[in-house]
Predict the 3D structure of the following.
Amino acid sequence: MVPLRRRFEAAPAKWINRTIALGILVFLVLAPPLDAVSEFNLSQIGIRALWMGIAAASVVFLARYAGMVSLGQTAIYGVAGFTYADLVVKLGVGQWPAIFAGIGTAVLIGLAVGYVASRTTGIYFLMLTLAIAVIAYYFYLQVSEVSGQTGLHLDRAPALVGGDTISHPTRLYYTALLLSALVYLSVRYLARTPFGLALQGMRDDPIRLQSLGFNISLLRTLAFGVGALIASIAGILSVFFNLQIAPSSIDINQTIIVLAVAVVGGLAHLEGAWIGALVYSLLAEYTQPWAEHLPHALQKPLGSERYPTWLGLVFLTVLLASPGGLMGLWHGAVGWLGRRLTAGRPQPVQPELL
Amino acid sequence: MPLLGFGVLAFALAWVAYKAFARGFGVEGGAPDWIRVTLAGLTLAALYFVIASGFTLIFGLMRVVNMAHGSLYLLGAYIAFEFQQHHVVSWLWGVVVASLGVGLVGLAMHQVFLRWNQGQELRQALLTIALSFIFADQMLAYFGGAQHYIQAPGAIAGNVDFGIFCTTEGIFGGTCLTFPAFRLVVLGIAVCVALALVLLIRRTSFGIAVRAGVDDPAMASACGINVEAVNAIAFFFGSTLAGLGGALAGAFLVIAPGEDADFLLKALVVVIIGGMGSLGGAAIGALALGLLETWAPQYLPGNWSNYSILLTFVLLVFVLAVRPFGLFGRPE
């Protein structure tokens, strides 16, 4: 009891956060065996929030550690998903070689795109990655050899993740949970390696880092490559989840949604990616039931079919009211509580990106 | 890398010339087709210029990347269409109402969402992205998912007969080189817009205020220029140009959900090539993109024409490799 109390007093905010994170993790692991949520929610809310969270985590990683806000992550996960699906459906390649080929192709293309984009920063980088995302969409729409408008449909995912994931989502849920944890821990680890420190130095002052002998262009390219690796995991998971991929999976709406998820969760906090994805999944599934009760005059602009508008409004509100996102609000509140509990001690400063 | 860029450009032009003129310059060769395709490319470029000039004007003055520019374009097209359908006004009035209406929407957007966070470029870009997302869904709610076309007025709805490259055979006797008159009108309007913009920026006191605001907002403000008002007017003008582009495009391109993203891409590519904030750059970028988009499907070897979208990416890559800030862009 005493050491626990001492730990709490040393850093109350950290203690509160860790306790809550542990609680959430235990809940997430035990939810399926305890039937805590229905199978529908496990799949449509749980798995979707986890894979979208990984996609958004690639945005957060680039923004948080390299200062690059990217709209190109859908293009990258599209390349991974389409390559995997193409190899399985059209060429009859085995599941696992196709998965690794998909991830490998996406990372290579990510490195190439990163090299082109590495010379630009800030809003130029944002514009260029958006252009690349839209070009990728039109590429898969127009080139019928790799996709065409109807996209690709798979019979089943690998047996390891449950085969028919639509009827039996539990295994895919645990896969997505495990991969999410892996991505989270890897990025946290990477941030402490010399490479991660160099990225953060570049984010804060590229010119100073360059004068210390670092190759800025190479750092940006490699960062984009790491982002591409994370995004391609999300791309493969999305194909497992939907058992199909079409150009509409990577259209501009999806591109904006992935960015919105990252911003709503909070660009300065990696765990925000999954929080934002949870908000998105809840909106996507549950706007319809309660929006039906809105007055008749509001049905057309805000009614049951209008969940993109609701998502846009949440995105807009977060940008206007709390640029740090939901996790920014959370850490602000917990930090304030911690300072109240241990008055007088210096607290670590949270980075603000927007 | 620059040499490779110019080499690829030279090869592409030589390839188009070879495909177009290898069989001579007469009727039996590819010359009439080349003229038709090139004119189509030029009119497309004209449209892209109208839209991208508004985008680049707003950026040049305020450093605001208006990611909702594509939405304003589509809104202009829908307003012009609705006015023609339900209020039975002439085509010209539809265009005027659509342009000014979209200008007002843009002005409201600037006053409510962008004015108070001037200087926070990334936040402003994200705000306009959020707005474009809402706009797209609301336009889907109110205008539906169907494809629409605007009727061009009777006088310019047909084809222009140039009276050259005439053939003597055929069921109807001779046919000559023709081209849709409306597209030529769009080309003319774009040239007028370009001239008006250049005169506005170079010759009027408003233009002087704009240029002063671009170079040094604080100093311009100290000299008694109301920079806030100049910004608001510029945002109105820039949005008006997007609306004008939409109203014009509705008569020869399709109006449908998704076109907003398409034209945001066009505006982005044009200004990334030409350089943000430069009108001349927007003109060069629009020409390059317009010609690329019409030449590529026509002159690429048959089974490659599906891949023509990738050429847009190649164009971007080569321009950025040679000049990271675009052809006429300035580093920050």
In short: The first helix of chain B runs from residue 2 to 21. Chain B touches chain A at residues 63, 65, 67, 113, 120-123, 125-127, 129-134, 136-138, 141-142, 258, 261-262, 264-265, 268-269, 271-272, 276, 306-310, 312-313, 316-317, 320-321, 324-325 (CB under 8 Å).
